[in-house]
Design a protein that fits this description.
2 domains, single chain, Cytochrome Bc1 Complex, Chain A, domain 1, alpha+beta, six-stranded mixed beta sheet
Length: about 425
Amino acid sequence: MDWKEYGLNTGTKIIYKNIPEFHSIAIGVWIKNGSRFEEEKLAGISHFIEHLLFKGTKNRTGDQIKEAIEGVGGTFNGFTSAEATCYWIKILSDYTETSIDVLSDMIKNPFFKDEDMEKERNVIIEEIKMYMDIPAKYVHEIFDEILFENHPLGRPIAGTPETVGSITKEQIFQYIENHYTGENIVISIVGNIKEDKMKEYIEKYFSDVKVKRKNEFEKWNGKPKGPKVKIIKKETEQSHIVIGGFGFSRNDEKKYPLAVLNVILGGNMSSRLFNRIREKLGLAYEIRSFTRHYDDTGIFAIAAGVSPQNTEKAIDAIVSELIEIKEKGVKEDEIERGKKFLISQFLMGLEDNLEYMMWLGEQRLLKDKLSTVDEVVQKINKVEKKDIEEVAGEIFKKENFYLALIGPEGNEEKILKIGKRL
C-alpha cells in the first residue's frame, strides 16, 4: 500500500506516507468545506475564514503563527476551492510537533481583532476587484456562471464585494463552529515521519475537536442547455475566451479517457489546438484545454487569448478541431504520447512530498474509494481509442457548448451559429 490510515474518535481521518530518506514533512489539515457549501448571502465566507485563520488565535498572534513556522525554515499557506479548504505546512521533520500544534491552534482557537477582520475584508475585496480587472482570469468566473446557472458552483470562490462586505464576525464564528468539526477533517502527512510520535501529537492536539455533523452541499442535477454565449464588452488588447461544457465527476471512470483526450487536444505544446491555433494559424499566443472534477459533475474547457479582429475566426478553428476529433477520431501515436505525458507528469509530481500530501489529502477528503499510484497508472494505460472517441462524442455537441468572452469585439449571433456546428 502507498500509505497508512487511521481515525480519531472525533471522526477525523489521518492518512500518511513515510518517506524516511526525506528531511522534511508536508502536513495538511483538510476541511470538507468550500464555496459550494455556502448560502448565497454568505458567498465567500469559506475563503474569508481561510484568510482570517492566519491572523491569530487565542494563544498566538498572527506574527507568532508566522514566526513559529518560518522562524525554523518552514513554509505554510492555505487555499479554498469549491469543495475543500486546506491549511498546510512544509517543514523539517524535527518540527513535526510544532506544525501540528500550530495547525490545530488555528482550527480550534480562532481569534481576530475587529481591526484585523476589517483589514482582511478590504484585502479580499481588493483581490476580487483585481481578478475582475484581469480578463484572462475573470473570464473563467463568467464561464462557471453560465455553465452552473443559479447554483453555488457558478459563484466565485472568493464571493463578491457585496457579500464579503456584509459578512459579520458572528456569522464567521458560527460558520466555523458548524463546519470545522471532527467528521469533516482529514489530516494528510507525507515525508520523514516518526510514526509513534506523529500519532501522539495528533492525539494531543486534535482529539478535542468538536463533533457535530457532516457538511452537506446542494447537488448538481442540471443537464446541458447549450449553446450558450455570454459576452462582456471591454476595451482590451485581446479577446479572452473560454469554451467548454460539462465533463465528468471525480468518481466517474470516464475521467481517464477524458484526461488523455485533454492532452491530445490542448494539454501541452504538442497538442492539436496549440499546433493549429498558434503554430499554423498564428491566432493566439496561449491556448490550452483543461478539466475540473467535482463530486457530482465536472468541466471540460478551452481557454485562449486572441486578437479582437480574429475572435470568430479563432472560435471557428477551435470548433473545427473538436468536430474533426468527433468525426475522425484520434490516432494511436497521439494516444500513446498522451498517456505517457499524463503518467510522467503524475509520477514526477509525487516526487515532491508537498504534492504527494495534496494528492493523498484531497483523495481521502473527497473520494469514497482511494486509488493507489499503481492503480492510477494502470487506469491511464488501459485507455483505448474507442474510450476517447466515445467521450469526445459525449462532450463535443452543441447542447454542451458554452462560451464566455471578455473583449472589445464578439458577435453573439455568429458565435452561437459556430457552436451549433457541433
